[in-house]
Amino acid sequence: MIHSEVRNGALWILFDRPSARNAMTADMEHAILALCQAVAGRPEIKAVVFSGAPAAKPAFMAGADFGALETATTAEEFVELERSSEALLEAIEGLRVPTIAAIAGACVGGGALLALCCDIRIATPSLKFGFPIARTVGNCLSVKNYARLSENLGAQRVRDMVYSASLLTADALLHAGAIREVVAEDKLHERAQQIAEHVMSLAPLTLWATKTSLLRLRDRAVAEIPDEDILSACYMSADFQEGVRAFLEKRPPVWSGMKNRQEGDL
Prior knowledge:
alpha/beta
């Protein structure tokens, strides 16, 4: 489900689960994390590119697989799922080399967050980007993930996206400055490799210092903000249980606005 190869100094990490539009499983998360950790000991790698493997219907990553959401039952388990995801996102942000997201098709939820952790993003016209959680399962993001969104899109655009439960197009993200350029579907990987080879020709310490400094500026304030209460309130709610059931049953959810589960709920 994860393929990797080095192309002229650039490590390509390809998501390959076309039946689920590359939705992230725990095994995929662990595999990507291991590849990111290995970069530190591989000086021949000068850049990392993330993308979906070629498929009849292109996709970057359509969020997380629902398996873990079905098995978790306690607030601690749900918070731990968020922290596990955060470990991967921080590993991507902390890579010593420039990172590029080459995006086509669905780029939703965890996939959108992964893309936002990359230094450079390019996309094709088929891109659909967002977090439609207000109409699907009724959960929320961590404070740090809201910070990632605000950093790239601006707070008001984040509100509009979440409140409308809509997906943004490549043109909208280009206008917001969240992606560098829009390229043809059949040129995505070629263009990503060209960009990778260009950034690999630049001063690596300058790029590293810029990346690290910007992350420190963002994270200093975020580190002081607790969010376990917010995450627990959403993930342990009756609405979240209803949202998951409705999603799996392919029907619209019926929201109650209740933070606590009803007696007898899973």
